[in-house]
Amino acid sequence: MDTAKQVSVFLENKPGRLAKVLSALAREKINVTALTVMDSHEHTVLRFVADDLAKAKQANTKDPTAYYLLARHWLRKQDSAKAIESILESSRQHNLGNGITGVLCYGGGVFLQAIEGGRAAVNELYSHIVADKRHTDVVLLHYEEITERRFGGWTMGTVNLSKLNTSIVLKYSEKPEFDPYAVSGRVSLALLEELMATASIIGRA
Predict the structure, then answer these.
(1) For a tag site, which of 9, 72, 147, 203 has the least CB within 10 Å?
(2) What does the chain look like in DSSP terms, one character per residue?
(3) pLDDT digits (tens, 9 = 90+) for 131-177
(4) Which of 60, 134, 125, 132 is CA-nearest to residue 93?
């Protein structure tokens, strides 16, 4: 049976976002042979097969707009400090050369990760996280086009969720322990913005 590689593109669920991607492919004279679209309230996932995948990826890389993605997932080895340090080290090395900035919150085996950068770079990194066998139950919480970065000072800042001030956590959670699986993406984003305002994020690049 013949198989074909596909390109996955995450889009903010707003008018014109899909047209922008397809127009970029048309300008480069790239033929799309198969296409699927899955959408939710806040974001859309476009998957397509093209006659020239390398050229298709390059066409999307030309988009100068910055994008923000928020995801949550579990670490398979919940108590592995070495695994967390390894993830942070590889993230910072990769992000520095690819224009990625963001924050990783962790605690009790749960990760809440914010990623910012160009669309192609953000999509590629998210796809890598999903495929990484160290992670499980990866959920995309929020995806949007942004005019400026929120976390531009960090190649990958860090927050230990178990050490947060209880009064801050209770503003965004029913319980003293913050659980990103129990709240919306916008609530998680609001918490991250407060952590930035209160200098709770460490690891500035």
Answers:
(1) 147
(2) ------EEEEEESSTTHHHHHHHHHHHTTPPEEEEEEEE-SSEEEEEEEES-HHHHHHHHHT---EEEEEEEEEESSTT-HHHHHHHHHHHHHHHHHHT-EEEEEEETTEEEEEEEEEHHHHHHHHHHHHH-TTEEEEEEEEEEEESS-SSTT-SSEEEEGGGS-HHHHTTT-SSSS--GGGS-HHHHHHHHHHHHHTT--B---
(3) 888 888 888 888 888 888 888 888 889 998 888 888 988 999 888 88
(4) 125
Q: Comparing 7-61 with 66-197, is the CATH topology the same?
A: no
- The CATH number of 66-197, from 3.10.20.310, 3.30.70.100, 3.20.20.140, 3.90.1170.30, is 3.30.70.100
Token code pair at residue 60 = 């999307």
Residue with tokens 């042979």: 33
Dist CA 28 CA 2 (whole Å) = 26
Under CATH, what is the fold of the domain 7-61?
A: VC0802-like (3.30.2130)
